[in-house]
Structure formats: structure tokens, C-alpha cells
Design goal:
- With 128 residues, the protein is mainly alpha-helical.
- It is built from four helices and no strands.
- Helix 1 packs antiparallel against helix 2, helix 2 runs antiparallel to helix 3 and helix 3 packs antiparallel against helix 4.
- The longest helix is centred in the middle third of the chain and has 26 residues.
């Protein structure tokens, strides 16, 4: 499980860096300051959670069951939260109306919060 978590952290981290560079070098010419800041929020939260998974996959303080739950919560949470933000920030570049993604963002946020709560409860309940 730890290898899978750390590998996922690596993928999320690499994609966050790629998207950050894309935002800084390409999107800054295409988007306004508000949209660019929104895009950067998605990148920032994706990187935070890549680092979070790196910790979770590297520690013995968390049970395997909790690690599996955290991996799923973070993976789906980043997909819903950050990726909906990426598309919403860039919606002026698309011909399709992407407003339907708006309600997905807070669901992703709740999944990310849930992952942190699973970590907290797992450590608080830990014996020893």
C-alpha cells in the first residue's frame, strides 16, 4: 500500500508542477488575473495533497486500513476539487458551458477534509 500511496503522491506532485508551469507561462496570456489566481489555487491544493500522501505513505503511525481510505479520499478529492477548478478557471477558453462543474468543487473539498480527519482520528485512537 505504501508504494501505491507514494507513487500517487509522485503523480499528483508532477502534474501539479506541470500545471503550475502551464499556468505561469501559457495561461497568463489567455486568462485574467482572477481566473489565473483560481487556477493557481487548484495547483496549490493538489500539491498540498501530494505532500500529504507522501507523508501518509512514509509513516508507520497510520494503519493500513486508514492509509487505503486516505488514498481514495485524496485521489477522488483532488480530481473533483482541483480539476474542476482548472476547468472552471479556463472556461472562457472552451465553447462548452462548464458551470455544471461548480457543485463538484465543494464535494472534492469535503473529500480532502475527510482524508485529514481520517488521519487525525487514526492517530488519536492509536494505542502506544
Amino acid at each position: 500500500m505504501d508504494r501505491k500511496i507514494i507513487a500517487t503522491a509522485g503523480v499528483l506532485g508532477a502534474v501539479a508542477i506541470i500545471f503550475g508551469a502551464f499556468g505561469a507561462h501559457t495561461l497568463e496570456k489567455l486568462l485574467g488575473p482572477t481566473e489565473l489566481a483560481t487556477f493557481e489555487t487548484g495547483v496549490r491544493y493538489q500539491m498540498y495533497h501530494a505532500l500529504f500522501l507522501l507523508f501518509v505513505g512514509s509513516t508507520a503511525l497510520v494503519s493500513e486500513k486508514a492509509k487505503k481510505a486516505i488514498l481514495w479520499l485524496v485521489s477522488i478529492g483532488v480530481l473533483f476539487f482541483s480539476f474542476s477548478i482548472y476547468f472552471l478557471a479556463c472556461r472562457s477558453l472552451f465553447t462548452v458551458d462548464l458551470k455544471v462543474l461548480g457543485p463538484i468543487t465543494p464535494v472534492g473539498g469535503l473529500l480532502l477534509i475527510s482524508a485529514w480527519i481520517v488521519l487525525l482520528l487514526n492517530i488519536v485512537r492509536r494505542k502506544g
